[in-house]
Amino acid sequence: WKSLDDLEMAEKRVLVRVDINVPVEDGRVTDATRIERIAPTVRDILDKGGKPMLLAHFGRPKGQVNPEMSLAQVLPALEQALERKVVLLETLEAAETLSAEAEAADVLLLENIRFYPGEEGNDPDFARRLAALGDIYCNDAFSAAHRAHASTSGIAQHLPSCAGRLMQAELRALEAALSTPERPVGAVVGGAKVSTKIALLENLVNRLDTLIIGGGMANTFLGALGADMGASLQEPDFYDTARDILAQAERAGCRVILPQDGLVTREFAAGAAHEVVQLGAETKLDSDQMVLDAGPASVEIVRAAFEGLKTLIWNGPLGAFEIAPFDTATVAAAQIAAKQTIDGALVSVAGGGDTVAALNKAGVADDFTYISTAGGAFLEWMEGKTLPGVAALNGSAA
Ligand code: 3PG
């Protein structure tokens, strides 16, 4: 694929697909990493005389306009990272009117692209309509490259296309650290997006020596083994998938580690009263009890597992890291991995919006070998899959 250096940008309208799907609480961005990492691409385009219009999604509005998922929430953080004004275009019609006249100094941002059903459906007419807003397409959204959507894939058929700086850097770094990883290789997979990630594990276990499962993902596995997880975040629709993964891991010789204890509470709140409960197939929680973090015995098991590894990939926190004390296991495990990395014993690569936020909170993000902005895309890349957003750049219009 081409880079920003291969296309003439001067006076050109450049459609830049970025991923600024960042954590927001009470309308404020709590971790701006993804926003900061796309800034060099936008600045480069401006320096080359191009007129950037950013295309981005926020959350999963499922093709409906939803004010709670407006990109207006990330606008201040975006303007701060880019050090210039960003104009939010609330509709495609507004974008169509403005894209022809925009001042080169203004960065344009189209409102949440997932408000349109044509985006996730990769509708060819929608992709064509988007493409008409620009002269060049630049994809800098590595973390959304596992989605074959109109703005990540379909659009490239209609415009000369290139990869942005972050997309290039991500692919290079992952290739360098993980294309032939030193074994044993382990992964931590946690977080709340169970349905998005669980199917990936079936292939991933073939490439791993150890898989440590945490968060909502672990609750789903424990539920699949027969535990009554009470009000814990889990997705029972995936119990069969979880059992298949455990069987596949056994065939592939991959050790799967589930939490053996957890911090259990009746209230999802910072500082909520909690107790340590043993977890396993026999666990029976009350219907209002939930596991919000892995417990101390599980952290020791994670420590021992990390010590046996040469390469670690990490996607998804082990608990509700955003509210203390349910960040304890994630912070402890992050610090263990960071120390081993500093000691030269471990290559550690972490990815995903929440994971990056958790490692920042633990104060160790800079100590990891590489931090990717991607979560699901990173895992699919790790599985050996060709990502549609990357493939589209190779087969682009010019
Ligand atoms: C992410 O947060 O991993 C990306 O922005 C993709 O989001 P999605 O899982 O909703 O497609």
Automatic annotation (TrEMBL):
UniProt cross-references to InterPro entries, sorted A to Z: Phosphoglycerate_kinase, Phosphoglycerate_kinase_CS, Phosphoglycerate_kinase_N, Phosphoglycerate_kinase_sf
Keyword Kinase tagged: yes
A single MF term (Gene Ontology): kinase activity
Enzyme class: transferase
Binding site for ATP: 197, 322, 352-355
Pathway(s) where this gene product acts: Carbohydrate degradation; glycolysis; pyruvate from D-glyceraldehyde 3-phosphate: step 2/5
Pfam families xref list: PGK
Reaction(s) this enzyme catalyzes, per UniProt: (2R)-3-phosphoglycerate + ATP = (2R)-3-phospho-glyceroyl phosphate + ADP
Entry's localization field: Cytoplasm
Family: Belongs to the phosphoglycerate kinase family.
Protein known as: Phosphoglycerate kinase
Gene behind this protein: pgk
